[in-house]
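Inputs:
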Amino acid sequence: MKVLFVGLLELRRLSRDPVALFFTALFPTLIILIIGVAIFGASGPAGVQGQLGVLDQGSGELGKQLVAQIKKDEPDLINISTFDDLDTVRKSIRRETIDAAIVLPRGYTDDLKAGKTVEVQFLAPTIDPSPVMRALLTEIIGDYGGRVRAAVFATKHGGDGFEENLVRAEEAAATPQNEITISTERLGQLRAEEELFSGFSYPAASNLVLFVFISSLAASGSFVESRLLGIPRRMLSTPTSSRTILGGVTLGRFVIAAFQGLLIFAVGAFVFGVDWGDPFGTAVLITVFALVGTSVGMLGGTLFRTPEQASSVGPPIGIALGMLGGCMWPLEIVPAPMRTAGHAFPHAWAMDGFIDLIGKGESIAGISTQLLVLGAFIVVLLPLGAWRLSRTLTG
Amino acid sequence: MRTVLTIGLKDLRLRLRDRSAIILAFVAPLLIASIISFAFGQEPITFRGSMAIADLDSSDISRSFIEGVRSAPALRDALEIKTVASEEEARALVEKEEIGAAIVLPKGLSDAIQSGQSTELSVIRSQEFRINGALAEAIAEGFSAEVNAGRLSIQTAAAAGAITRSDSPGLQALIQEAVSEKIPVNLVDGAIAAKEVKAASYFGPSMSIFFLLFTVQFGALGIRAERRDGTLARLLASPTRPWAIVTGKVFSSFVLGLASLLTMYLATTLLLGADWGDPLSVFALSIAMVFAAVAVTGLVIASARTYEQAQGFGQIATMVLAMLGGNFIQVTDAPEIFRRLSLFTPNGWAIRAFFDLSAEGGGITTILGPLAAIVAFAVGTGAVAIAMGRRLVTQ
């Protein structure tokens, strides 16, 4: 019973500390809101409209036709803005006012009419090279280039001029006869991972993992503070066993971490319509990870010497582990050794669990491996933290 | 003047003894910049995948397709090609995830192509290997685009009257020529910067600035701590002017901040191969940014009422500034408002400037605008901060 009271004390201290409240509840919510608005604000939920810059360096009639074709083929997915010089284009890509750009070179029309091959440059940042837009453009350019090829061929062997033949080619292309077609069969899970990574679910899950951990670690400072103030020692002078105090503190910290996780879950689900997948599996994953955070916080409470150390070291460690664990970017895109290194820490396993639940529609059975590994972290860290804590209490 | 130095140096010594300052100023930014640079530093396309091709046609055409994929320069190092005998075998391999994707060349492919009939290639891909699957689709689509374009050429030539009699001897040669041409427009990747910007060159500065905002708070917090602990009153009882105290603390923050930033510059350049750009400009930007950081955080800390509040506000302010300035959370599809908001933060300007410097080369002229903005921030917030600081010290 006393365990509950000690735990409640932790909660009361949190509720009286506006800064801690900010970081525990308000800040993560703010970030999710900001990311959510950023993703949804521009163009609506499902698709993201790509901003394409077009630099026409004097490409002539055919260049203009290509741009018109792009506009015609993908009015929803590609939004075109025109530029006059390369420096401005590059700057705009750096500033992220456009996602990518194409450069239509000088002499484009003349070269094509003469039967030569031309190159259209595709510019995109290394970090996010807009693969979808690139694929769309490749297809549009392929179709368009095919018509040019046909027109050049017909002009070479027939009597009429290029322009007429281009029109003929367009007419012929409009009623395709006997084409070679491609059919694609996707094997595997029900939900496409593309939805996960381009939607809002990933930021929600990764922020949950990130913040529960960082808050638990930074909150270890509160325990250091209470230690320095002598609170536990005074508690011990009452007929309260150190085990009760330990249990109470752990419970309090766990409730805060779990509350935070649930808050982010709720904001994601009810404000942004995130489908977290199997509810039972999600609840268990959040609870287990909250316990991991609690264990780490407990251990931190015994390792840091001053509260300042905890609050200054906590966030960087949390951020670094978050990066390694796939909270800032999916581990898919990093080199394999980094992916492996990331799995030395709990974040990566929690993210794997969420990806399976959300992206692959797994139930709790499907994430049992991840839960077991997270459980292992708890089994190692929690007793260690508790043991050290009891030593500082009684020693 | 000597008083300022004495106070400043004493403060610095205290900070350096406190490990949290060293961690925030030097260890954390380096650690995190390293992680990011390892995650993104390699060429994005060291992709190695595998593909199965089921050749159900066993014709010259199907064999030349396989040969073409095997020998294509872009694919040679990236893809391992395995030929299988049946579609079922290909599907099984993809299901078991032993192969990334498969292409099925249907029976009768060669006949269809030669007689101008339609036919269909199948691509089998799994949800697990996105890039591999996309590549297989792209290869199949590229092939079909070329074949279809060849047919279009013949159709267009016929419409232009180039083919008069279907049994003329030149017809075969004509068809051969039409079929063997290539689509004359290629989408190629271009460079978005005059120089290639490595991940380390972008994240080195942005991470340094993020932690800089934390690092420079110690000075102003120090004033509050001394006020709380009573040493400030004792200091004032000596022949020390209040402005000397404020300046001394500012001095210590400034030195620590600048040391942190310059250490990051050297470390990322030497260890991670980052290229921040023209050294003189880097130095100028660094000095301006450190001043602005000291000023902005000083203002926040001076406006709080107690030491704890100041600490908390300082952390909150840093996180908000970092979020808005784009240091940390990258929102690539952010609506215009977020990009504008970043211009209200000194760190937002600094990151733009460092990125431009890194990408465009050039000297001071590249960064004059941002530099002016940062200095304006420093002067504006600094003046208010100093006024508040004086009141803090004297009351």
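The CA atoms of residues 190 and 360 of chain A lie 6 Å apart. Flag for discussion at group meeting.
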